[in-house]
Amino acid sequence: MAFNIEKIRRDFPNLMARARDEKPLVYLDNAATTFKPCQVISCTHAHYCHKTANIHRGVHYLSEEATAEYESTREKVRRFLNASSLCEIVFTKGATESINLVAASYGRSALKSGDEVLISQMEHHSNIVPWQLLREATGCVIKVAPINDRGELLLDEYRKLLSPRTKIVSIVHVSNSLGTVNPVKELARLAHEAGAVFLLDAAQGVSHEPIDVQDWDVDFLAFSGHKLFGPTGVGVLYGKERILETMPPYQGGGDMILSVTFDRTVFNRLPLKFEAGTPNVAGVIGLGSAIDYIRAVGWEDMITHKKDLVDHGHKVLNAVPGLRMIGTARNKAPIFSFVLEGVHAHDIGTLIDREGIAIRTGHHCTQPVMERFGVPATARASLAFYNTKEEIDLLVKALLKVREVF
Question: Does residue 257 sit in the same domain as residue 288?
């Protein structure tokens, strides 16, 4: 489809919603979750209305239909990521579970005391805490690559921290609190030179630009459906087949088994070995619909539009008196975190909510980032391809009103 912003906005019913006092909603909280297009809503609605069934084991019509749609999404995800095999696509509850799966399964089986895990200073808590749990279980060591005042990873320091003891490198693709886009291919290359496996947290990056796991040569990749205009409660773990084959199951039960006796269990083939229990069937099918939608809109137009939003956002927000941007990376997604002199972030969010503008305030599950920049919290406006420059201007107008109040 041609990139017609007004037509695209009509695909998202939530954008037509009203906020407090019947004000038109300006939704700038897309880093927390994205709205869903009618196509995704209709797809999940149709499943629940006409095709509800459990998958894989049923021989009746509904089960066969649900299984076919579920597995067709696996192929859509494979193509979306350019993975080499369907065996490399594991469905999870989200990026958080995907990272925990790698830490618990690969980490506990491959790491020993003294081995190192390298992360960065800009990581989401979901890419910190699983490695701390692994440290408690194995005695491994966590190293942290620092960032500069722009919120960019210091590549020289990252390189210095890599050593023969480094077994896992786990880095965010796009920072949810700074907007920084990391040089994934280079980071993965350096990790591999040190003999480490590389995990990419693509929760924010999955809707930012096309992903090519083979070209980038990442060993694992995690993302959530709800950040890609799909349903909540569903996510993906990509893993290279040769590595997944060596990993023990993460959970037991359901589809991850071939046979069970009281003496032993024979585990299923990939990727079902890591998909225990009844999955989020409707969510996975909805994710497939979201991928179809993204492909129809087209990456090139989306990227151009979002670059315009980044440029315009920095220009007009930096003109607000007393505003300081937190995160000014040269390669950046449309995520604007800022502080306003003399005003707490929570007060900013509360006051502009009265104008119908939805942003996020707080530490954004990145408390080490807040510590690095010496602030308790930030206000964050995060945009998707359906947002407009006019909405950014309304945010600026609301911030000027906040200035007046304080």
Answer: yes
Enter the tokens of residue 210.
Answer: 């096309």
How many other β-carbons are positioned within 10 Å of the β-carbon of residue 157? Answer: 15
Q: Give the Cα separation of 42 and 2 in Å (integer).
A: 22
> Count of domains in the chain?
2
Furthest-apart CA pair in the chain: how many Å?
72
Domain that holds residue 352: 5-30+298-405
DSSP 147: B
Question: What is d(CA 186, CA 152) in angstroms, rounded to the nearest whole number?
Answer: 14
Same domain, yes or no: 19 and 156: no
Give the CA count within 13 Å in the CB-facing half-sphere of 336. 25
Q: What is the pLDDT of residues 230-260, one digit of tens each?
A: 999 999 999 999 999 999 999 998 888 889 9
CATH number of the domain enclosing 337: 3.90.1150.10
The catalytic residues are: 365
Q: How far apart are CA 18 and CA 230, in angstroms?
A: 22
The 10s digit of each residue's pLDDT in 59-84 is 898 999 999 999 999 999 999 999 99
Residue 78 lies in a domain: yes
Straight-line distance from the first to the last Cα atom of the chain, in angstroms, rounded to the nearest whole number: 46
The secondary element (H helix, E strand) that includes residue 362 is strand 360-362
Cis check for the bond before 334: say yes or no (omega within 30 of 0): no
In a domain, 316, yes or no: yes
